[in-house]
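Hello support,

Our group uses your service weekly, and this is the first time we've seen a run hang past the timeout. The protein is YbhB/YbcL family Raf kinase inhibitor-like protein. I'm not sure whether the cause is the sequence or the server load. Input pasted verbatim:
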Amino acid sequence: MPRIPPEANLKMLVMESRFTRVAREATTGRAGGENMEIRSESFDDNSFIPKRFTCDGEDVSPPLFWSQGPEGTRSYLILCEDPDAPRGTFHHWGVYDIPTDQTSLMEGLPPRTEDDGLKQAENDFNTIGYQGPCPPKQDGPHRYYFRVWALKIANLEFESTPTIPELKRMARPHLCAEAEIVGLYNRE
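Update from on-call engineer: The timeout came from a worker crash unrelated to the input. Re-ran successfully.
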């Protein structure tokens, strides 16, 4: 079987991501049809994430900024997920109960932030807080989806720290708008 060169894989990933985004925008009925935007000062949509924010660097969370949610938004939730992981989607970060007067997260958000009102979920590394991209070496570029969800509820109640899949299940019924930015990362 012929080997596809890595640059061809990257082009296919970027095209697939753009196609998905265009298809989603064309059906803008997603969760109420409200448009939101999310961005980072550290990388552009469909570009490579700087090493600083990965397991090969300082492994700190990137700064994120998003637009205000639609009327009725009572809190925000941030997710970072890798759908290209060998065993299915890998959950890197979940931040929830973010107050509506906050539309950004600083670089290097510490794992324990409950003094600010927001909370963080347990990631698939079994730690609380952010753990950055760390795909298997020579696995080609992986996509990392950083998403913001606007929720119609101020607080999500859990008896203990939730995993990110638990967080998503609890939050999804309250979703009123969302946005995403995709970063790429690979390890040689």
